[in-house]
Design goal:
The chain is an alpha+beta fold. It is built from nine helices and 32 strands. It is flat and about 100 Å long.
């Protein structure tokens, strides 16, 4: 009985809450609709602008009530049409509608009227109109219009996915590098695409050593299954088995088979009697709408055959675009190049908090190419060398993979250390185990102005003779400091147009008593080591340090190697500066 009372109390509590929400929304709906009619037919409505402003000063509680009622209505409409709205899309809807209702921007007043009155779809369409008309008058900056269009799309997804996609695409035109918009467009485009039409498969029928095969196509995009028929036309029993099979989906990702079964034997092998026939079923481990390529490994007696098919539309899947090469920055046509029958498009670097550099690759040859990407190096604005944390091909989800002819894959190189600017970026690309080094320079990773770049401190050079040039490297001697543990500092600038190998050997210092002392440490700032490959035009610093106290160094000798050349940098009678 107690449980019944609790259930009854809970029911009436929920009922009262629902009535409250509906009453509030209905009251607002009546008022705001009157106001909208008043705008269109001013003689029929006496409400003043002050009345409207007071009504639209919504509390957080009222906003939450309106949003919840709108979500409930939108989801019910989607369910009635048999459309699925994901949890993420519901969250986006809630955030966009809440943002609109909480806004005090006077240009959004009409859209807020509609949203408050329970007409979320009309409010979203008003946001689209506002963004378009503001674009013509430049009343709202491009970024602001893109935000309005994204919010409009988020609100329209449950009721009209096609309109939502159009809003997202307009937003993406204004903000083409926005990854959130790119994802929204990609997902919704796939969800709203037409279903695949059944098409004849060229070369579907083929014969191998007396066995007649026919490729019957693939079905079930969530867990693809491909089917072949096989028949033994010979008078003898034939040993047959199907080996590993693989496919590439529309995203350019290899799919491995997770199951191979011959119906007649319930196994992947079958001794096929004369004139017997059966079906072969191969299932795969990832979703796909289209197989850009399918490869079957078929064994007849002791002979292995490999059969390949292209552009197979999966029954039940969507008509989506396959991955294509994205264009390079038109200001940098040199970002598009080709190595060993692999076309490469460098798409730039972004995301200062955790930098990522992107490429697209396409095999332009006639046979598979083995691609290996072992990472890369970058040099930030202060010339500090950073090693890539990850280098991944979308083809395999790993750093290497087989790239078949005509297939496009993306290649992402990511770094852990923040950077706003790369003075140089060296990706590490190998094709068929051959390295193809490439350098990209002066890459701004964010929207802000580039930071100050490390330069040689020539105005602080030790005198006399603090400036010198050796084998294309300019050295600036900045003096020595700290008599208790002397440290001598240099800047070094690569004046050439190529990378220069630089090594710092152990320095020696002679004190006033004529005793020679060897440096306890030597460090190049760029790498934190004794060696560095200094990119063209880049400046770094290095230090040599001693443990023995010396108020004055009568002679300093710093041996360095620049490529194959060796030099001794020498200074005499150096007074040490106190820290």
């Amino acid at each position: 009985m107690a449980n019944d009372n609790q259930s009854t109390g809970h029911f009436w509590s929920r009922f009262a809450w629902t009535v409250g929400v509906l009453s509030a929304v209905l009251g607002i709906y009546v008022f705001v609709n009157d106001e909208i009619r008043g705008r269109l037919f001013p003689d029929q409505n006496a409400a003043t602008r002050a009345d409207v402003k007071e009504q639209l000063q919504l509390s957080e509680e009222r906003i939450a009530m309106i949003v919840q009622a709108s979500i409930t209505s939108a989801m019910a409409g989607a369910d009635a049409r048999g459309e699925n709205v994901s949890a993420d899309q519901q969250d986006n809807y809630e955030a966009a509608l809440t943002s609109l209702l909480a806004s005090e921007d006077p240009t959004l007043t009409d859209a807020r009227f509609l949203a408050v009155s329970g007409q979320a779809e009309a409010a979203a369409e008003k946001l689209v109109t506002t963004a378009e008309t503001s674009g013509a008058s430049e009343a709202i900056p491009a970024q602001g219009r893109a935000d309005l269009l994204r919010n409009a799309g988020d609100i329209l997804v449950p009721s009209d996915p096609a309109k939502a996609l159009a809003a997202y695409q307009k937003a993406l035109e204004l903000d083409p590098d926005n990854p959130v918009l790119q994802t929204r467009v990609k997902k919704l485009k796939a969800e709203t695409a037409e279903k695949n039409a059944v098409k004849a498969i060229p070369g579907a029928k083929f014969e191998l050593s007396g066995l007649q095969f026919e490729f019957l196509g693939c079905e079930n995009p969530d867990a693809p299954k491909c089917v072949l028929s096989v028949m033994n036309t010979t008078p003898d029993t034939v040993k047959f088995w199907i080996g590993s099979s693989s496919a590439i989906n529309e995203q350019g990702r290899w799919l491995d088979d997770k199951g191979r079964n011959i119906v007649a034997s319930s196994h992947y092998t079958w001794d096929i009697p004369s004139l017997e026939a059966s079906q072969i079923e191969v299932t795969y481990n990832r979703p796909a709408n289209i197989f850009q390529l399918v490869r079957f490994e078929l064994h007849v007696n002791t002979v292995e055959f490999n059969k390949e098919f292209r552009d197979i539309a999966i029954r039940g899947g969507r008509q989506v675009d396959v991955r294509a090469m994205r264009p390079v920055d038109p200001d940098h046509p040199e970002y598009a190049y080709e190595v060993d029958n692999v076309a490469v498009h460098f798409l730039g670097c972004a995301n200062p908090d955790a930098p990522i550099c992107r490429f697209d690759l396409m095999n332009t040859g006639t046979s598979d190419r083995k691609i290996s990407t072992y990472g890369g190096l970058a040099f930030n604005s202060q010339s500090l060398q950073r090693k890539a944390a990850q280098s991944v091909l979308s083809l395999s989800g790993k750093s290497e993979g087989e790239l078949p002819p005509g297939i496009v894959t993306s290649w992402d190189v990511t770094f852990r250390s923040p950077a706003e600017f790369f003075q140089a970026f060296w990706p590490e690309l190998n094709v068929e185990y051959e390295a193809y080094p490439k350098a990209f320079t002066n890459l701004n990773l964010g929207d802000a102005e580039p930071p100050a770049i490390k330069t040689a401190r020539r105005d602080q050079a030790y005198q006399p003779g603090g400036l010198l040039t050796l084998s294309g490297l300019e050295f600036v001697f900045l003096g020595c400091a700290n008599p208790d543990n002397p440290t001598c500092t240099f800047d070094v600038h690569n004046t050439t147009d190529a990378t220069v190998q630089f090594r710092l050997d152990r320095a020696t210092a002679t004190d006033d008593a004529g005793t020679e002392k060897r440096a306890a440490s030597r460090v190049i700032e760029m790498t934190g080591d004794q060696d560095a490959d200094i990119p063209a035009g880049v400046t770094t610093s290095f230090e040599v340090a001693f443990r023995s106290a010396m108020p004055r160094i009568s002679e300093l000798v710093v041996p360095v190697a620049i490529g194959d050349d060796r030099h001794d940098i020498q200074y005499a009678d150096i007074a040490l500066q106190a820290n």
